[in-house]
């Protein structure tokens, strides 16, 4: 039990938290779409900062693995958003 990897979801607590992150009742589809679009925008700014105010990459010293993980999260959210259309 405990940690078995470096990703946020690779812990016992993370597995519980991230287990079904995209499950939302259908009547909230419009709200979900807006939240997904905003999440995609924010994640995009994390790896392609629009200004010096975004210091996420500085915290990770520009680690390419972190950029790849964030890109994967963006792709997953974009796929989910496409399913709503």
The number of E-state strands comes to 0
Largest sheet: none
**Count of individual helical segments:** 4
Give the helix/strand class.
mainly alpha
Name the helicity range.
55-70%
- The proportion of residues in beta strands is under 5%
- Order of helices and strands, N to C? HHHH
Tell me the radius of gyration: 15 Å
Shape: globular
Poorly predicted ranges (pLDDT <50, ≥5 residues)? Answer: none
Q: pLDDT average, as an integer? A: 80
Measured between the Cα atoms of the first and last residue, the distance is: 39 Å
Describe the structure.
It is a single chain. This protein is 60% helix and 0% strand. It contains 4 helices and no strands. The protein has helices at 12-18, 29-47, 56-59, 64-84. The N and C termini lie far apart (39 Å). Helix 2 (29-47) runs antiparallel to helix 4 (64-84). The chain is mainly α. The protein has a domain at 28-84. It is globular, with a radius of gyration of 15 Å.
List the helices and strands and how they pair.
Blueprint: H1 12-18, H2 29-47, H3 56-59, H4 64-84
Helix pairs in contact: 2-4
Question: Would you kindly provide a brief summary of this structure?
Answer:
The protein contains four helices and no strands.
């Amino acid at each position: 039990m405990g940690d078995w990897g470096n990703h946020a979801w690779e812990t016992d607590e993370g597995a519980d938290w991230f287990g079904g992150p995209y499950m939302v009742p259908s009547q909230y589809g419009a709200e979900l779409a807006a939240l997904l679009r905003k999440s995609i925008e924010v994640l995009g700014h994390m790896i392609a900062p629009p200004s010096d105010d975004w210091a996420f990459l500085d915290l990770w010293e520009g680690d390419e693995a972190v950029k790849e993980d964030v890109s994967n999260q963006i792709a997953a959210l974009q796929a989910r958003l496409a399913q709503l259309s």
